[in-house]
């Protein structure tokens, strides 16, 4: 039979282990909510993006170089993390709200996806008012592809984004790859360059619509080719 001092030592030891585990968990959560462990984005140059091979997803599929999209009038391009994600659908809807202003500027709105699964792209089209293309090599998600895994689920900002999108009436599914982070680009006409590059820091990190418009207004359309 154990003596009372031994029992007290055992109890104190268990309490120490428990408090230590709690301390580790709290420290982990605090660190996960900083940018310390977030992978740093690498800026995508115009040269890197314009050679990207894209494929149209309409009835008549064709493959072409991405530079065609912004050659004459520039473009706003959303790199969609996952079409079925309700956070991506929210951002697509908000970007689409700019279409009247973009049309007035003569700047087209496009999106690229990493994969085509079932009717995911067609369903996403209800939220996005521009043409969507397949970027199979995921170059619009690079040059350094960044992922957010389970750590994203303990970030306060992510849960705030979840709540915001849910309150705004958005819903989605879990189909497809959703860990490689996306972004939004505003690219000038011809060789004008990348005027805005927003890279998702965490799930639901949306681009500023005002920044998109301001960048789009800087686009200088190329003169039409003449014989």
UniProtKB/TrEMBL annotation:
MF annotations from Gene Ontology: antioxidant activity
GO cellular component terms attached to this protein's record: cytoplasm
Keywords, ordered alphabetically: Antioxidant, Cytoplasm, Membrane, Redox-active center, Transmembrane, Transmembrane helix
Transmembrane segments: 12-32
Residues of the signal peptide: none
Protein localization: Cytoplasm
Pfam families according to UniProt: AhpC-TSA_2
InterPro entries assigned to the protein according to its UniProt record, in alphabetical order: PXL2A/B/C (IPR032801)
Main location group: cytoplasm
Top-level taxon in the UniProt lineage: Eukaryota
Family to which this protein belongs: Belongs to the peroxiredoxin-like PRXL2 family. PRXL2A subfamily.
Name assigned to this protein: Peroxiredoxin-like 2A
Gene: PRXL2A
């Amino acid at each position: 039979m154990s003596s009372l001092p031994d029992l007290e030592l055992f109890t104190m030891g268990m309490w120490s282990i428990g408090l230590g585990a709690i301390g580790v968990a709290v420290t982990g959560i605090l660190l996960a909510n900083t940018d310390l462990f977030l992978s740093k984005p690498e800026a995508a140059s115009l040269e890197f993006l314009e050679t990207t091979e894209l494929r149209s997803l309409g009835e008549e599929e064709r493959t072409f170089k991405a530079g065609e999209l912004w050659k004459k009038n520039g473009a706003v391009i959303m790199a969609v993390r996952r079409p079925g994600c309700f956070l991506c659908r929210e951002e697509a809807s908000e970007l689409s709200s700019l279409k009247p202003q973009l049309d007035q500027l003569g700047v087209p709105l496009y999106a690229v996806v990493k994969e085509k699964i079932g009717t995911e792209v067609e369903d996403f089209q209800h939220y996005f008012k521009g043409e969507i293309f397949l970027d199979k090599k995921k170059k619009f998600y690079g040059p350094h592809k960044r992922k957010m895994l389970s750590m994203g689920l303990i970030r306060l900002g992510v849960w705030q984004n979840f709540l915001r999108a849910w309150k705004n009436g958005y819903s989605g599914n879990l189909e497809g790859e959703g860990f490689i982070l996306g972004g939004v680009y505003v690219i000038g006409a011809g060789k004008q360059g990348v005027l805005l590059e927003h890279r998702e820091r965490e799930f639901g990190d949306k681009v500023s619509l005002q920044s998109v418009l301001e960048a789009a207004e800087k686009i200088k359309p190329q003169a039409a080719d003449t014989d």
